[in-house]
Automatic annotation (TrEMBL):
<dbReference type="InterPro" id="IPR028082">
    <property type="entry name" value="Peripla_BP_I"/>
</dbReference>
<dbReference type="Pfam" id="PF13377">
    <property type="entry name" value="Peripla_BP_3"/>
</dbReference>
<dbReference type="Pfam" id="PF00356">
    <property type="entry name" value="LacI"/>
</dbReference>
<keyword id="KW-0238">DNA-binding</keyword>
<protein>
    <submittedName>
        <fullName>LacI family DNA-binding transcriptional regulator</fullName>
    </submittedName>
</protein>
<dbReference type="InterPro" id="IPR000843">
    <property type="entry name" value="HTH_LacI"/>
</dbReference>
<dbReference type="GO" id="GO:0003677">
    <property type="term" value="F:DNA binding"/>
</dbReference>
<dbReference type="InterPro" id="IPR010982">
    <property type="entry name" value="Lambda_DNA-bd_dom_sf"/>
</dbReference>
<keyword id="KW-0805">Transcription regulation</keyword>
<dbReference type="InterPro" id="IPR046335">
    <property type="entry name" value="LacI/GalR-like_sensor"/>
</dbReference>
<keyword id="KW-0804">Transcription</keyword>
<feature type="domain" description="HTH lacI-type">
    <location>
        <begin position="10"/>
        <end position="64"/>
    </location>
</feature>
Length: 337
């Protein structure tokens, strides 16, 4: 075969020439996009598509000491990855954010002591450049292990007990819960119950704080039950609430799955939603819009959460000390309340 018929693999030099920028600018875009103007980034990304350039990850790893990959670490039982749609949304968003940077996402699940030990060894050995910690529990030793190993880590939600040590991207949990509670009260509801998440998680703790603050003198501890964010736990919690109180006129669940479980329990008890009891959730992860009745809920900005986490983690890896990011939620009113 004549060597002129062999198509040469595009290089960074080719991309730089096509984009009209320096090779250094191309390198910065490929390695995370720090200190690059939006116009230059757009020009480089367009040039990469036009030239068909692909990064030599092996060479880059040898040169930089980095793997070019980040870990999506879920510290929950494996089945929740498939049952809870919020994790799938975050996973998809993180994968898309890394694909735009020619990086790889590694999925890790650590819901048991054996899995946590394996993950700590894998991550500590440098197989990934950093960790996107998607869920955390207050007593979970894995956060401490990541910190002790010097692994760059960013947490989705405030890691209880490590608030000052780990950069975070979270929603305004307290403010969001207050807004939903305020909405329910504005609809005339007074005996409002809450199905909170686990108290050792940021969503479980701070959404309850917001609910209690907004209820003020009307807050009744007897109208609070705790679930684990699953639909089954929402049904169990609702059944317990009905056993203790017959005058509940609204329920605020800390997840859409628990709200769906609560509605199932109410129907089993012969009660109508929203005619007898209004029900509201939290997340708007897809279930809320398709549920019958459709759920009133607080919508989390899923794509932005993932994008901000990836950007923040790359900043940490590059030696930065980023400030925590708090994102707003949106009240979405549907038929259930």
């Amino acid at each position: 075969m004549d060597e002129t018929t062999v198509r040469r693999k595009p290089t960074i030099r080719d991309v730089a020439a096509a984009a009209g920028v320096s090779r250094g600018t191309v390198s910065r875009v490929i390695n995370g996009g720090h200190w690059v103007s939006p116009d230059a980034r757009s020009a480089v990304e367009d040039a990469i598509r036009r030239t068909g350039y692909t990064a030599n990850h092996a060479a880059r790893s040898l040169a930089t000491g980095r793997s070019g990959s980040l870990a999506f670490l879920l510290t929950e039982p494996q089945h929740l990855l498939f049952q809870d749609p919020t994790f799938a949304l975050l996973l998809r968003g993180a994968a898309e954010a890394l694909a735009q940077r020619s990086m790889t996402l590694v999925l890790l699940v650590a819901g048991t002591p054996a899995e946590r030990a394996g993950v700590a060894t894998f991550v500590g050995a440098g197989h990934v450049d950093g960790v996107l910690l998607i869920s955390s529990h207050e007593a979970d030793p894995l956060v401490e292990q990541l910190l002790e190993a010097g692994v760059p880590t960013v947490c989705c939600g405030i890691p209880l007990g490590h608030e000052a040590n780990v950069p975070t991207v979270s929603v305004d949990e307290i403010g969001s819960a207050r807004e939903m509670t305020r909405y329910l009260r504005a609809q005339g509801h007074r005996r409002i119950a809450m199905i909170a998440g686990p108290h050792d998680t940021p969503g479980g703790r701070f959404r309850l704080v917001g609910f209690e603050e907004e209820m003020g003198a009307d807050f009744d501890r007897a109208l609070v039950e705790e679930g684990d964010y699953s639909q089954e736990s929402g049904a169990v919690a609702m059944t317990r609430l009905l056993e203790r109180a017959t005058d509940i006129d609204a329920v605020f669940a800390a997840s859409d799955l628990m709200a769906a479980g609560a509605i199932a329990a109410l129907r089993k008890a012969g009660l109508r939603v929203p005619e007898d009891i209004a029900v509201a959730g939290f997340d708007d992860s897809g279930l809320a819009a398709t549920h019958e009745p459709p759920l009133t809920t607080m919508r989390q900005p899923w794509e932005r959460l993932s994008e901000e986490m990836v950007s923040l983690l790359l900043d940490v890896i590059a030696g930065g000390h980023p400030q925590p990011i708090t994102l707003p939620t949106t009240l979405v009113v549907r038929d259930s309340a």
